[in-house]
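The methods section describes the discrete structure representation at length, but only in general terms. Each protein is reduced to its one-letter sequence and a matching series of backbone shape codes. I believe one specimen quoted in the main text would settle the matter. An entry of this sort, consisting of the sequence and the corresponding backbone structure tokens, reads as follows.
***
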Amino acid sequence: MQEEVVFVTGNEAVARAVKLAKPNVIAAYPITPQTEIVEVLARYVESGELRSEYIHVESEHSAMAACIGAASMGARVFTATAAHGFLYMCEMIFWASIARLPIVMANVNRALAPGWNIWAELKDAMAHRDAGWIQFYTASIQEAYDTTLMAFRVAEDRRVMLPTMVNLEGFVLSHVMQPLRLVDEAAYDEFLPPVRIPHALNFERPHTLGTLISPEHNFLVQYDNNKCMRAADDVIAETEREFEKITGRRYRAVMKYRCEDAETLVIAMGTLAREAEVACDSLRDKGEKIGVLRLRQLRPFPKAFAEEVKRLPAERFIIIDRAYSSGYGGILAEEVKARLYDLGIIKEVKSIIAGLGGQDVPHEALEKLFMDKQGGETWYGV
């Protein structure tokens, strides 16, 4: 299959993916650095290229509320946000999850105030890791496009039925331009079946949704949510394999780079993981056996991580975080250390906090950090 190649920003790439998915409803409110996504979608709707109900709302809280209402009626829905807009949605974020609604949202990661900052940081999404949403983290414009395409199929799978967010870092991905290989529309139409939400409201078979839950039932609803989140891990893997068949592009929950003989294993997410790969190549040329393990999803935390870590020979782990839980540590670092403990693995772990608020972290700086044998926690630039 011959694919068309275009040169676009990360935001436009996401909008192009949403256009292919043909959502019934798009609820939109602008916020930097996400605004271009909903602007491009608005142009598609206005021109007739995309037949969707485009709802202009007065706030992000209302955007998610509109998505919840539409999905509750069985519609395929999409929205996009960033940082403080995400926080404004917070009440509805939890509501969408516990209602088991397959909403897809792009989140353009941006630092949170104070002080006011519009550049990349992952805390907006990672602070909501317990909200019951599937969370993907992307490292290129192509990956943001492809992951958005896969997100609709994952979210709407009968075994899952959970809201899903695709994260791309503000400006680092949202506003840069890279070549993008487009997916053939006919092939994608076969890949993504029509949306069917089994618990959608139905006038022929009336039922209630979202009413008061008693103590004896509330924990069962949460248990069911957790069970489906865990099932999503296998559904994601299936979806990635099927997507590879139509595009030739291979994605996995854990992406390995020069790991097979690595004595030091760098673990990271998003664009910092890609920068770590450049540092890895440079250090390999100097005789250092370093590999990079990039996590594409935080929730569900991938089972493949345990499988890879047990199999790989590394004796030292370095975890890079573009987010921090104040008074505790790097969020990804603490997640990884918990998994290592569960596996009975006791090895040296170094935590690096870097890139907060859009701080530039060139590969040369990462090389120095990787070669620093000091363990514990290190803040780049301090």
User: Anything to note?
Assistant: The mean pLDDT is 96. The chain has two domains: 5-247, 254-379. The longest helix spans residues 215-247. The radius of gyration is 21 Å.
